[in-house]
């Protein structure tokens, strides 16, 4: 089997990373597999819920980067992995895992994947989804209240105390490691077509 191509998709919270990942998976089906850095938050089984709520989840230290690297390298070498599953409503990793199979194209998605040079070195193409901060916070509020059982107050508080400062400290500077910056994420059809063409060319050669 030909060496897979690894495409990293980074950007701030609510920027549209998942939309691009979803579009690529819809377009190329079984030729694409994806892993999200979000599933690799460190397990906190021993920490009481009240303490888990206070953790800064937007700092690189919140992630189990070594396990993520191990799994990504296994996928690249053609092995099936057991990806952790993270439950945002309880701020903890679940006991069960999800089977992820290798493919010709591996999509890696997450807010902080470009903050680590070691992770960047595993990627062939690095895309940074650049969306206006106002749009991103509104999307995050809708998602966290609707899908993650959060209160509006808790989402806004988390955004102001950790999400925004960490974005400015880690996510925004990591943009310089991107090969392509995509304004407006999945709504940028020109950029999306260009990426799809690059993936198609890889699959056909």
SSE layout and pairing:
Elements: E1 5-11, H1 17-28, E2 32-36, H2 49-52, H3 65-76, E3 81-87, E4 92-100, E5 105-109, H4 117-120, E6 125-130, H5 133-147, H6 152-174, E7 180-183, H7 189-204
Parallel strand pairs: 1-5, 1-6, 2-5, 6-7
Antiparallel strand pairs: 3-4
Helix pairs in contact: 5-6
Note down, in words, how this protein is organized.
The chain has about 200 residues and is an alpha/beta fold. The chain has one domain: P-loop containing nucleotide triphosphate hydrolases (Rossmann fold). It contains 7 helices and 7 strands, in the order βαβααβββαβααβα. It has helices spanning about 15-30, 50, 65-75, 115-120, 135-145, 150-175, 190-205, and strands spanning about 5-10, 30-35, 80-85, 90-100, 105-110, 125-130, 180-185. The strands form 2 sheets. The protein has a 5-stranded parallel β-sheet with strand order 2-5-1-6-7, sandwiched between helices. A two-stranded antiparallel ribbon has the order 3-4. A hairpin with a 4-residue loop joins strand 3 (about 80-85) and strand 4 (about 90-100). It starts with a strand and ends with a helix. The mean pLDDT is about 90.
């Amino acid at each position: 089997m030909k060496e897979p191509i690894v495409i990293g998709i980074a950007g701030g919270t609510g920027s549209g990373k998942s939309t691009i990942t979803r579009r690529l998976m819809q377009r190329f089906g079984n030729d694409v597999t994806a892993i999200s850095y979000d599933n690799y938050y460190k397990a906190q089984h021993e920490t009481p819920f009240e303490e888990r709520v206070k953790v800064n989840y937007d700092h690189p230290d919140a992630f189990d980067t070594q396990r993520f690297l191990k799994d990504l390298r296994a996928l690249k070498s053609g092995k099936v992995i057991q990806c952790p599953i993270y439950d945002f409503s309880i701020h903890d990793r679940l006991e069960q895992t999800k089977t992820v199979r290798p493919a010709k194209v591996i999509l890696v998605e997450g807010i902080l994947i470009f903050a680590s040079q070691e992770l960047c070195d595993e990627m062939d193409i690095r895309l940074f989804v650049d969306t206006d901060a106002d749009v991103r916070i509104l999307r995050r509020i809708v998602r966290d209240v609707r899908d993650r059982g959060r209160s509006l107050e808790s989402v806004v508080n988390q955004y102001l105390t950790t999400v925004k400062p960490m974005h400015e400290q880690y996510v925004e500077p990591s943009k310089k490691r991107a090969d392509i910056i995509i304004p407006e994420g999945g709504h940028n059809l020109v950029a999306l077509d260009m990426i799809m063409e690059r993936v198609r060319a890889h699959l056909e050669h």
